[in-house]
Design a protein that fits this description.
This protein has a single domain, classed as 4-Layer Sandwich (Metallo-beta-lactamase, Chain A), CATH 3.60.15.10. Helix content is 32%, strand content 22%. It contains 10 helices and 14 strands. The strands form 3 sheets. The protein has a 7-stranded mixed sheet. Helix 6 packs antiparallel against helix 7.
Length: 298
Amino acid sequence: MKRTYSAIVVALAVAPLAAAQQDFSKVQIQKVDVAPGVHMLIGSGGNIGVSSGSDGVLIIDDQYAPLTEKIRAAVAGISTAPIRFVVNTHWHGDHTGGNENMGGAGAIIVAHENVRRRMSKEQVSEFFKRTTPASPKAALPVMTFAADVSFHVNGDELHVFHVDPAHTDGDSVIHWKNANVFHMGDLYFSAGFPFIDLESGGSVDGVIAAAEKVLALANDGSKIIPGHGPLSTKKDLTSYRDMLKTIRSRVAPLVTSGKTLDEVKASRPTKEWDETLGKGFINGDQFTEFVYRSLSKK
């Protein structure tokens, strides 16, 4: 199933504003079959991964709180078993907004320890010009890990592993080892330039390294669920990785030579991709700034 990029960027663009300015009554949850017992749900916010089977249901991320009932209904169309676990790929509200509702219904919320740390405190974003208040206690992950954790459910091993600071400092990848599926959260945007949350510890080198790590584990039969955008393949992720590396290689020497941000933007390091990737949430100039600021911190 393909989804237009315009729909994806609407979901992203409202993330900082959450329920206050979006009419969630109009959001429809779409189901994508990924592999036996594995599905992807598309709504508003980050793509949801679903593992279902005789052991119950585990979901990856849960979008926004007003969508919880629609998400539950979509999951019920896959399995009548309860949602036992929710794994958060990182702390952003378009991936964790349903935590309080899911946890209140009995699901165990699991995430990297930095996700709980950031959700527990007020977060300030210069990029979005907003302050995100601390999440209520009921929305916080109750089980955290430093490096990795595995779920042995539904005839598969779901290996959840943390990567070095990339999109944020709390990113995790979920690998269904038998089904040959990966959920990368916002480490991977399949239809646009990625948002690198520098204020949450992100870095362009980390995003590249995360893509490299998944590519080393993947094969031509792998299915890759992105944080935003259509279901993908190893070939798609390779193209994404190559794009990131090319833009970084153009910006890095300009940073080293002392060029200003405006001078670097004027060199148009993203030019080959501006038409295909830069028409939505993050444009070429914004992505150039992420790369410039990330490399300037070194």
